[in-house]
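FYI - complex with zinc ion, inputs then prediction.
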Amino acid sequence: MCYQVVERYSVCRCLYYKHAIDPCAAHGQRGHVVQEKTVLVGYACSSHSSHRPEAAYGAGVLPDSGYGSDAYAAQR
Ligand SMILES: [Zn+2]
Ligand SMILES: [Zn+2]
């Protein structure tokens, strides 16, 4: 049985890295299958990360002042 190691993010199960197939003696025969071995890596990918970059982004843009709402309305 051939093995192919597939690394996935343990949080969102997105593909992290697909290794090359490790072929056995029966590789290429009819009905022969490649066994996938999933290895989980201990974090999420950038698009499913639990970190919230938008929170840090918003904190820098909006000042915590009393008249922020007036300036915001004037832009519309
Ligand atoms: Zn094989
Ligand atoms: Zn993901």
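Strands lie at 2-9, 15-18, 34-41. The longest helix spans residues 53-61.
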